[in-house]
Amino acid sequence: QDGLVIWCHNGQGMEAPIAAALGKVDAINLFDPYWNDVEYDIWYRMLNCGIKMPASTGSDWFVCSANRVYSQTGGAFLYDNWLAGIKRGETFITNGPAISISVDGSPPGSTVQVSAGGMTHAKVDWSSHYAVDTIEIVQDGSVVKRVSTDASNATAGSLEADIQIGADGWIAARLGSTQRDSFAQALWAHTSAVYIDAGGKKSDVQVGSAALFVRDIEDSMVWVKTKGRFYTDTQRAEVVDLFEQGLDVYKGLAR
Q1: 197 with 112: CB under 8 angstroms?
Q2: Burial letters for 51-84: b for 16+ Cβ neighbours within 10 Å, e otherwise?
Q3: Beta bridge partners of 231
Q4: CB of 124 within 8 A of CB of 135?
Q5: In the chain, at which residue ranges do the beta strands (DSSP E only) sit?
Q6: 3-class secondary-structure state, position 117
Q7: Is 6 exposed, middle or buried (0-12, 13-18, 19+ CB in 10 A)?
């Protein structure tokens, strides 16, 4: 229907990675507290597999009612432009602080061409009403640059790093703080990823992430076939078929 599709919560199985692999999702909703660890793990693994998946978030219930996604509209606010910014992946998610990243001058959602073995330059800017404790640059799921602030008034700053590129991947920025917002939640923010094209060279991280999805999807298929509740066997078979299609994608990436 040409709408914006954002996946919220991964649920019992591996529906989110399957939907993403089959091109059915525009962004993933993150940072719902009781799903946080699972969703970050799954999102990072999607990115490691080369799936371009922007970050989104939003209010859910009282424990995360300050969560917001910000989209770059490129000028005056128009709703269509805001939606387009999310689809491009030019976003950051937060419950208060503002954060941005550029890699070789390119914003989140962009693809930067870098030769394998070459270097790229990342720059992060951030500001916050409350003090921020930690600012990090993340490459392929691992922190490659971290600054911890001791000052109680650390409410704005910049962070830069030269990052070596060994294969295709991604770079993003995140921050955290023990300071609490008006909903008593610890402050956080995360940019969407800037994608790195190193000529199609696979990394061990990509192969490993795909292999984990293969394992988890196969486990989930057992649940779908034996415990999942469906109105008809035909309906169950349709879901199993989608799982098999997604599984084939990740098996290809894991080879």
Answers
A1: yes
A2: bbbbbbbbebeeebeebebbbbbeeeeeeeebeb
A3: none
A4: yes
A5: 6-8, 27-29, 55-56, 68-71, 91-94, 98-103, 111-113, 119-127, 134-139, 142-148, 156-164, 169-180, 186-191, 194-197
A6: coil
A7: middle
| φ/ψ (deg, to 5) at 62 | -60, -25
Contacts of 248 (CB under 8 A, 6+ apart): none
- DSSP structure class, residue 41: H
Secondary structure (3-state) at 82: helix
Cα–Cα distance, 197 to 110 (Å, whole number) = 10
Which two tokens mark 67? 């969560």
Question: Which of 119, 143, 249, 140 is closest to 204 using CA atoms?
Answer: 140
CB-based burial, 153-174: b 16+ in 10 Å, e otherwise: ebbebebebebebbbbbbbbbb
Mean per-residue pLDDT pooled into runs of 10, the chain (255 residues): 84 82 93 56 93 90 80 92 96 95 98 96 96 94 90 83 97 90 84 96 95 95 92 96 96 95
Whether 196 and 114 have beta carbons less than 8 Å apart is answered as yes
pTM of the model: 0.93
